[in-house]
Amino acid sequence: MLLNLVQNEVIKWIKRTSFYVMSGILVLLSVVSIIFIFMMDNGTPQERNGWATSDWRQALEKENESLRETLSADVQFGHVNYMEKQLALNEYRLANDLEPNNENSVWTYMDSNIGLTSVVTLFVIIIAGGIVASEFTWGTIKLLMIRPISRGKILLSKYMTVLIFGLIFYVLLFGTSYIVGAIGFGFANHPELLYINGTVYALSSFVSILFKILLSSFSVLMFATFAFMISTVFRNNSLAIGLSLFLLFTGTQITQLVGTKYEWAKFSPFANIHFDAYFHSFPIVEGTTLTFSIIMFLLYFGVFMFISFLTFKKRDIAA
User: Fold this and answer.
1) Nearest Cα residue to 127 out of 211, 12, 30, 43
2) 200 has which bridge partners?
3) How far apart are CA 259 and CA 169, in angstroms?
4) Strand, coil or helix: what is 148?
């Protein structure tokens, strides 16, 4: 019965013109990106980095000296994390004779398009913000309630539909990026270095890009769940979409600003949804750790879902 409900919800949204507009935008963006890369791609990978193949070791050693000198001074939290990471990566390359390489490939192209997941987040928010509220707006909620199906299953089917469309958008974005990148750049595979808690790991390009895509999905999931909760509680798709989009574009920036003065900023949901920061840059707010962010993420996710289901089950359905 639950699968039938999900199937019906998916079919309803697939029949909407907006779904094809969203899908078309994602495909277009993933294709257009290659044009900008070709326009800015001047010189060999070594020339773009400012060093020749023969002296890359010397260049990294000089960079390490500069990093050590800077680290010995009083620098800010974010700068320390970045410099420690860069120093560790450089030392790993020197120890394992791994020359830095910026050669374009299908994997680097997919990596460059990870930033487009913000567009996926926007589209998922639109669906999540309207999937429950629209039933009340159009008065179709009564047609669902007269069926011999529990309210919990009805709401769960709608949330699962949101996740399915999020997955569809991800497949469209990165599937198209894979095809375009493979045609434009080929499949050159160079080890990707990952810095975790002071240790450097070498991953294949394929595993690395899958890992980055997975990390980017947690932010999408949290915003989708928040928009879904607002839609369920207030039955207003404009409020759900508007508030979620406002937080999407300002939440992280506000949290970073508050975090410079107040330690409690680390408890903000926006300080604990950017898991890629722990592997590729530095945390949004000082004082957070990967374990802490995982716990906070699960806590907020649980609270949002609890409020959604409690409200939907208890509130009187009136139109």
Assistant:
1) 12
2) 195
3) 33
4) coil
Other CB atoms within 10 Å distance of the CB of residue 302: 11
Per-residue pLDDT of 42-85, as tens digits, reads 554 445 444 455 588 899 999 999 888 887 765 555 566 778 88
N-terminal to C-terminal alpha carbon distance within the chain: 26
Spans of all domains in the chain: 2-34+100-314
Q: Kindly tell me the burial class for residue 69, based on how many C-beta atoms sit within 10 Å of its own C-beta (0-12, 13-18, 19 or more).
A: exposed
DSSP string, 209-227: HHHHHHHHHHHHHHHHHHH
Q: Give the separation between CA 72 and CA 276, rounded to whole angstroms.
A: 27
8 Å CB contact between 205 and 107: yes
> How far is 122 from 245, CA to CA, in rounded Å?
7
Question: CA–CA separation, 128 vs 224, rounded Å?
Answer: 6
Q: How many CA atoms lie within 13 A of 289 on its CB side?
A: 3
pLDDT at 295 over 90: yes
Which amino acid is it at 226?
F
Band (246; pLDDT cuts 50, 70, 90):
very high
pLDDT tens digit sequence for 73-107: 655 555 667 788 889 899 999 999 888 877 889 99
Q: Where are the alpha helices (DSSP H) in the chain?
A: 2-14, 17-40, 45-49, 56-71, 77-96, 106-112, 117-130, 133-138, 141-145, 151-185, 205-234, 237-259, 277-280, 290-314
- Residues 6+ positions from 111 with CB-CB distance below 8 Å: 209, 212
CA 98 to chain centre: 29
**Torsion sign (Cα): 91, 93, 94, 95:** positive
Phi-psi region of 97 (alpha: psi -120 to 50; beta: other; left: phi over 0): left
Angle 226-232-238 from CA coordinates, rounded to 5°: 75
- The type of residue at 267 is F
Residue 226: Cβ within 10 Å count = 24
